[in-house]
Amino acid sequence: MDAEFWVALAFLVFIGVLYRAGAFGAVIGALDKRSDAIRKELEEAKALREEAQRVFQQYKAKFAAAENEVEAIIARAKSDAARYSAEVDADFQNFMARRRAMAEKRIAQAEATAMADVRAAAADAAVKASEHILRDTLKGAAGEALVAKNIASLRSEFN
To answer: pTM above the 0.90 mark?
Structure first.
């Protein structure tokens, strides 16, 4: 019998003693405890993962709602800007129409004033021409009185 046999026999005896002493139960119990601890850690990790997924979905929904709100705000701002632009354009058109009417009124007044000035100048010229013609044709005190009377009546008539 050689040495390898005695080592194998000693090893089997040692294993038998350990089995009788309950060492295998302790090792198996320690392995079971370790297995339970690992299982609990896996369950906790799974629960944490599910919680993270739930939180992620909540934030994803909040982000989508925020995007929708931003789009609504942008649409409302565009609508307000278009309405304001239309109001400003309408106000500008009204302002320009009033300014045009005012300018046309001033032009009409200037035309009327110019026509009155032309008539007055024409009347004065006609009176002066008539005065010269009548003076040249009517001489003396009677002619002078007649000319003065007619000039006064013409002036009152044209002015």
So the answer is: no
